[in-house]
Amino acid sequence: MENEIQFLSKYKKEVDWKVYQSVREKRLEIERWIECLINATLDISKMLTTLQGEEVPETSREILFKIASRVYKEENKAETFSQFAKIRNTLAHRYLDIRWQDIKMFLQIASKIYPPFLEYVKHEIES
């Protein structure tokens, strides 16, 4: 996951609305990348919850919020992290009209949100 996060700055520089709308290959590439990254985040969050002997919440948003509540001191950051589930659903179900706004938001906040999550995961694995 750390290797994948490194692509954030690349995509932030390369992809704007014009590129997203006009270059099909780049659009599909970034959509797939974000969807896979969020799916991996969900899988890791489920595993950590299970390993900690807790019940896994029913929805993707609840799973991400539960883990994020441990990672971030501020509830608004946990809420932001949990919104990645909505972005994944938007991409998975191909809602054309709202994909770009979600992708843009993801690219803007993921570089701030993911490092603490990755540190938390490393800490949990090492303990």
Order of helical and strand elements: HHHHHHHH
Low-confidence stretches: none
Please give the radius of gyration in angstroms.
15 Å
How much is the average pLDDT? 92
Overview of this protein structure:
This protein has eight helices and no strands. The protein has one domain (14-122). The protein is mainly alpha-helical and 127 residues long. Helix 4 crosses helix 5 and helix 5 (60-71) runs antiparallel to helix 6. The two termini are 19 Å apart.
Task: Show the helix and strand layout.
Blueprint: H1 2-5, H2 7-14, H3 17-22, H4 24-51, H5 60-71, H6 75-82, H7 84-92, H8 96-126
Please describe the structure with a list of short key phrases separated by commas or semicolons.
mainly alpha, 127 residues, 8 helices
Summarize the structure.
With 127 residues, the protein is mostly helical.
